[in-house]
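Hi C.,

You asked whether I'd gotten around to modeling the 100-residue construct. I have! Everything is below, sequence then structure, no commentary in between.
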Amino acid sequence: MATLDTDQENQEGEVNKSSKKAMGKPVNNGGVSISKTDIQLEKQWLAVRDEYLANYPDIKDTENENGNFSDIIENIAKRRKRTSKEIRDEIMEWPSTQNS
């Protein structure tokens, strides 16, 4: 019985060693991920949307019920002839009138 216990311990040790090997980066399978930055951007957008749209009345119809938030940003960027990153940065830097 002692040899059985020793063999089992050796196998468990090999499993533990192999599980500590460095793993590669995960494969991008096309799934949608939401970063913390995207969540913060969307919260900021909700806080400043009315004032932002008041400053740019020609983009009011860019929001629709079916589009996701990224689509809204892209539509605003197209209308304003700017990049999505520029619009994201502008929204994040827009002074919020609500208390956080």
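If it helps when you're writing up: The chain has a mean pLDDT of 75.

Thanks,
B.
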